[in-house]
Specification:
This is VOC domain-containing protein. By secondary structure, this protein is an alpha/beta fold. Helix content is about 20%, strand content about 30%. The chain folds into two domains: about 60 residues, 2,3-Dihydroxybiphenyl 1,2-Dioxygenase, domain 1 (Roll), CATH 3.10.180; about 55 residues, Roll (2,3-Dihydroxybiphenyl 1,2-Dioxygenase, domain 1). It is globular.
């Protein structure tokens, strides 16, 4: 049985109220659709021409943690280590989460040997970033 990790948040950062992760997207509309309709992330807000940018803000498991996708006019280079890893408590929960992707005929991609060994399933978003569905909580 794997023990849960306990980390202590640094005192200097204790007053942080929220955290956001942002990525640029060369395929903005398709990427927003992918995360909203196929992955199932709740879309909190969209914005247009906000200081020159268009974007979408998705909710993650905690209300104060969000993922922002910002439209890019240029092609965005994607590194193969740019992953969004979603950890589920078990395989049935993992399989339920990927059902929409399978129903949409989205095929899993070849994945890192670690993910293969632990039973994860990996898909690519329209920009080529990997979304990993793991059947355990890290």
């Amino acid at each position: 049985m794997k023990r849960r990790r306990h980390t202590h948040w640094p005192h200097e950062l204790a007053s942080i109220g929220a955290m956001r992760f942002a990525r640029r997207s060369s395929n903005f509309e398709e990427t927003v659709r992918f995360y909203r309709e196929l992955v199932g992330l709740p879309l909190f807000e969209t914005f247009g021409d906000s200081f020159g940018s268009n974007g979408a803000i998705f909710g993650l498991p905690s209300w104060n943690l969000t993922l922002e996708i910002v439209e890019s006019v240029d092609t965005v280079a994607v590194d193969h280590h740019e992953q969004l890893c979603l950890y589920f408590p078990d395989q049935p929960a993992q399989q339920a989460a990927i059902a929409r992707l399978r129903e949409a005929a989205i095929e899993p991609v070849q994945q890192h040997p670690y993910w293969e060994a632990v039973g994860a399933v990996t898909f690519r978003d329209p920009d080529g970033r990997e979304v990993v569905f793991a059947p355990f909580v890290y």
